[in-house]
Amino acid sequence: MKTLILTLTITALAATAGAQTIGQRERNQQQRIAQGVRSGSLTPRETARLEREEARTRAIVHRDRVDGGGMTAAERARAQSRLNRTSQDINRLKHNGRGR
Known about the structure:
Elements: H1 2-17, H2 22-39, H3 44-66, H4 73-94
Helix pairs in contact: 1-4, 2-3, 2-4, 3-4
């Protein structure tokens, strides 16, 4: 039962985020981080943390694409989940009242 719920959740997340490709979402998140730096809403430490998260996601996606000639549905869902988590982190850190 838990497996079924997990599968449905992952499928729903993948379908929702499917409007943008993984690459488009990564670029969008990089722009959001850069905007936070420009506006001063992200501290250098917060920026470094978000950049590390982004780099880890890029490395995983690259490995999944190269390993076996493409990404499976499960790998895409896992990547979208990581991107969702990073997006939430960007939002939380940009609006936490800390800054320069």
